[in-house]
Amino acid sequence: MRTIVLAVLLLCSSAPGLAVAQQAAPVPDESTLARLVWTSMVAVDSANRTGNYSVLHALGSPDFQNSNTVADLAQLFRTLRENRVDVGRAILLEPEYHIAPAIDQDGVLRLRGGFEFRPQAIRFDILFQNIAGGWRIFAISVAEMQTSQR
């Protein structure tokens, strides 16, 4: 199986048209970026409030789903859940990006930033994969911290 995957990766990397098309993908517009962040924050908040991480899991890309079980997600967000962090309040503010939104050479969109609530800000670092024309979570980190920390 590993040999087949490697062969497919090598085949894709040797096809110049595929590589150029992937690198040429534009970063989505501001409203789409904000929607991606807000949707992710609401999914984390809903999962934390209900203890049901299946929707957050379903919003992930196939790679995310294969790497993380629903139980894994519950464990990853345990601290936010136990501290009753209101991640859903993120929809009240525009996300502030600490690094410019960008798509890497593998076609992964990275959104890293925060929501500057006082005294505790919400920080996020979310990677998205484009699957069938839509952005799906590939990796996600959400934390609450002092507003001055980045």
Model description:
43% of the residues lie in helices and 27% in strands. By secondary structure, it is of the alpha+beta class. It has a single domain, classed as Nuclear Transport Factor 2, Chain: A (Roll). Strands 1-2-3-4 form a four-stranded antiparallel sheet. Strand 2 and strand 3 form a beta hairpin. Residues 1-24 have low confidence and may be disordered.
The gist of it:
With 150 residues, the protein is of the alpha+beta class. It has 7 helices and 4 strands, in the order αααααααββββ.
Query: From N to C, what is the helix and strand string?
Result: HHHHHHHEEEE
End-to-end separation: 41 Å
Biggest sheet: strand arrangement: 1-2-3-4
Q: Count helical runs.
A: 7
CATH class category name: Alpha Beta
Mean pLDDT: 83
**Which regions have little confidence, pLDDT < 50, spanning 5+ residues?**
1-24
SS class: alpha+beta
Tally of DSSP β-strands:
4
| The CATH architecture | Roll
How is the CATH topology named?
Nuclear Transport Factor 2, Chain: A
Protein name: DUF4440 domain-containing protein
Keywords: Signal
Signal peptide: 1-21
